[in-house]
């Protein structure tokens, strides 16, 4: 029989605030901020482009490994995974802040990406236990949107602190630990002082569960591949188009601002339903990717496209959580981990293709192909809608 945490509203709010902060830190301030601070890190530590690429690839691989751990364990020990996320993301950020050699920095940078892979499935499970129904879905969207505020804060730190990137990483470490503590406190006890837990699901879902996810997996893979051009080369393309370092940091903040706009617009997005929400957000990602590649020198348009991309991408990841919850709510954490791994694998493939294309040509066609991949992610949506709900 399913049992849930009996949470008071104040404790639920603490869980949501802590969850938003943990996602903001693990994703926006740690995992995705690497590229933002990279030029100054290269100048101080002598990190050459080839090593920078190795670090980026290693961080993505570490994220996938951590998310796979979350796939198997989030349904059983989500609070332990939250502690692990704080240890890897916070410890990795602190290690980067104090690293004096490039090898040490690279090791801590790779380890730090594990935090994001552990945090997402763990928080999905904790929220599922704490809040049910429509309110629970709303809280899932709100917490997942924490990436946006994290990116805004990362850009603000870049404007305020660079070239002192060490202080930026130290701030990220502090926020990570404080957010994790808030999550752990809010999930430690129910309102009457006793912790109540769900029965654990099987570690490996049945074969039918994977079959129900196949079209969602295809959609996530395509969107991941299409979004990689902006995440990996967006700032480079803007700078090559004549943008200053400050403007490129402002564009990064606009990506985060778009992600943060998911919060006030979450209710309207939920009313669309998961299928239509996915179609809308994938189209926004496609259109904004094309605009950034075609018109990088038109600054107002570039900033607007960055806001749209940040909103579309963050809202799309929230739609993935909704989809897998509709397939099997009890295994929502495992579904989230699996789909986010697929998304990152798609980004790895898309980044490799975009890098090859930019080496051989101009940004316009490369970003146009990336936009087409994101638009193609719409195709699996309608068939998915017919199988996502289980009796």
Keyphrases for this structure?
391 residues; mainly alpha; 17 helices; 81% helix; 0% strand; disordered N terminus; disordered C terminus
Describe the secondary structure blueprint for this structure.
Layout: H1 9-31, H2 34-45, H3 49-73, H4 78-98, H5 102-112, H6 114-130, H7 133-144, H8 147-161, H9 165-186, H10 207-240, H11 245-260, H12 262-272, H13 274-294, H14 299-327, H15 332-360, H16 363-376, H17 381-385
Helix pairs in contact: 1-4, 1-6, 1-7, 1-8, 1-9, 3-5, 3-6, 3-15, 4-5, 4-6, 4-9, 6-7, 6-15, 7-12, 7-14, 8-11, 10-11, 10-13, 10-14, 10-15, 10-16, 11-14, 13-14, 13-16, 14-15, 15-16
What does the model show?
- 81% of the residues lie in helices and 0% in strands.
- It is mainly alpha-helical and 391 residues long.
- Mean pLDDT is 86; it is low at 1-7, 190-200 and 383-391.
Q: Stretches where pLDDT falls below 50 for ≥5 residues?
A: 1-7, 190-200, 383-391
Helix content: over 70%
SS element count, helices: 17
How many strands? Answer: 0
Distance between the termini: 17 Å
Structural class: mainly alpha
**What is the N-to-C order of secondary-structure elements (H for helix, E for strand)?**
HHHHHHHHHHHHHHHHH
| Approximate strand percentage | under 5%
Task: Determine the mean pLDDT.
Answer: 86
Short description:
With 391 residues, the chain is mostly helical. The chain has helices at 9-31, 34-45, 49-73, 78-98, 102-112, 114-130, 133-144, 147-161, 165-186, 207-240, 245-260, 262-272, 274-294, 299-327, 332-360, 363-376, 381-385.
